[in-house]
Amino acid sequence: MNILKWILFPFAILYDGVTRLRNYLFDIGYKKSFEFEANVIGVGNLTVGGTGKSPMVEYLVRLLGESYTIATLSRGYGRKTKGFRIANSNDNAKTLGDEPFQFFNKFKNIHVTVGEERAVAIPYILAELSPDVILMDDSYQHRYVKPSLNIMLTDYNRLFYNDHVLPLGRLREARKGAKRADIIVVTKCPQELSANERNSIREKIGNYSDSKVFFSAIKYLDPVPLNEDYNKLSENVLLFSGLAYSKPFTEYISSKYNLVDDIYFNDHHEYSSKDMNLVEERFRQIPFEDKSIVTTEKDIVKLLNGEIKSVADHLPIFYTPIEHCFIEDGEVFDKMVKESIMKTEN
Q1: What pLDDT is stored for residue 217 in this prediction?
Q2: Whole-number mean pLDDT of the chain?
Q3: How confident is the model at residue 244, as a pLDDT?
Q4: So which domain of life are we looking at (predicted)?
Q5: DSSP H helical segments within 118-209, as ranges?
Q6: Are 107 and 101 in contact (CB under 8 A)?
Q7: H or E segment at 229?
Q8: Which helix (H) or strand (E) covers residue 185, if one does?
Q9: Which domains does the chain carry?
Q10: Rounded Cα distance, 320 and 257, in Å
């Protein structure tokens, strides 16, 4: 492993230099960041992989959705389409991407949009949809847009100040990039995280940012069946998922059920009938009559259309929705978000 680190070290230095130069050019105004006369809330991170951006966007939708008209803007990673797109009833995970289709499938009172170039997409959103608030997903490195509120997430299990830039580590840019955040949320914390550990984490984050730091955990909701003919998740389960970091989900399922078998795919995996046949084959091999299949909400949206739905529909597949749950000061976070909107409106 040490040899590999030495091999990767020069590439990390080069990558770090390029990203520092890019950020410097934005900082001095050589590269332009566009500000809009609109409430644009950015949600992102310093690392590659999952820190809980989608659950945070969903938290903000629930927080603001009753008082404001909301539009989400995502890149639409992995989609087969290009350019700006407003979600409609003909769309699916292939045309929108996993997370945007999840938003569209879950929230009927918001507009869901995708577009690689956010600075180009936002004027279209404002002109065609006139939302009160735009929630910009995975936006931290997209510096061509300057959000009115910038929320940075860091996973408790892989805190950014312990990490290194690519390819030596998982950081998309240097740790000092945290200074651009207005709010930092440490996500996926254990519910019993002590005050001493919270203070220690705040102190270490303080070396890179003066932002207010919050701590959140993942709240797992009751399993939901893909097919309503199956009404209860059995004690014995097969798990399959395609996540950047599957350990927390696996640990949760293991704590609640008898996890007999598991199948892991890459993040943003595009499921095929062949994949579902593999899941079915492994499921049939489980030596219990009382058995089910469990996956994530992010994965289930990719099983809702086309030929793969007909394969999945006859299996007892359940998905487990998740939500952000603040360990402390959740009302302070909510107030900061709402105040940023009122400030922009004034």
Answers
A1: 96
A2: 94
A3: 83
A4: Bacteria
A5: 118-128, 195-205
A6: no
A7: none
A8: strand 183-187
A9: 2-68+132-219+326-345 (3.40.50), 224-320 (3.40.50)
A10: 13
Give the residue among 277, 263, 345, 261 at the shortest CA–CA distance from 312. 277
Closest by alpha carbon to 337, among 155, 179, 151, 185? 151
3-state SS of 279-317? HHHHHHCCCCCCEEEEEEHHHHHHHCCHHHHHHHCCCCE
How many C-beta atoms lie closer than 10 Å to residue 12's C-beta?
Answer: 17
Give per-residue pLDDT as tens, 246-279: 888 999 999 999 999 999 999 889 899 899 999 9
Place of tokens 């890459």: 266
Q: State yes or no: pLDDT of 345 exceeds 70.
A: no
Alpha carbon distance 295, 223 (integer Å):
9
> Residue 253: CB partners within 8 Å, gap ≥ 6?
237, 239, 259, 294, 320
DSSP category for residue 32: P
Distance (Å, whole) CA 182 – CA 210 = 8
Contact 209, 178 (CB under 8 A): yes
Report helix, strand and coil shares of the chain as percent, to nearest 5: 40, 25, 35
Residue with the two structure tokens 């999840």? 102
Report how far residue 220's alpha carbon sits from residue 217's, in angstroms, rounded to the nearest whole number: 10
Residues with Cβ within 8 Å of 69's Cβ and at least 6 positions away in sequence, in order, are: 110, 111, 129, 130, 131, 132, 133
With vertex at residue 269, the alpha carbon angle to CA 315 and CA 186, rounded to the nearest 5 degrees, is 105
Report pLDDT digits (tens) over 275-324. 999 999 999 999 999 999 999 999 999 998 778 888 898 999 999 999 99
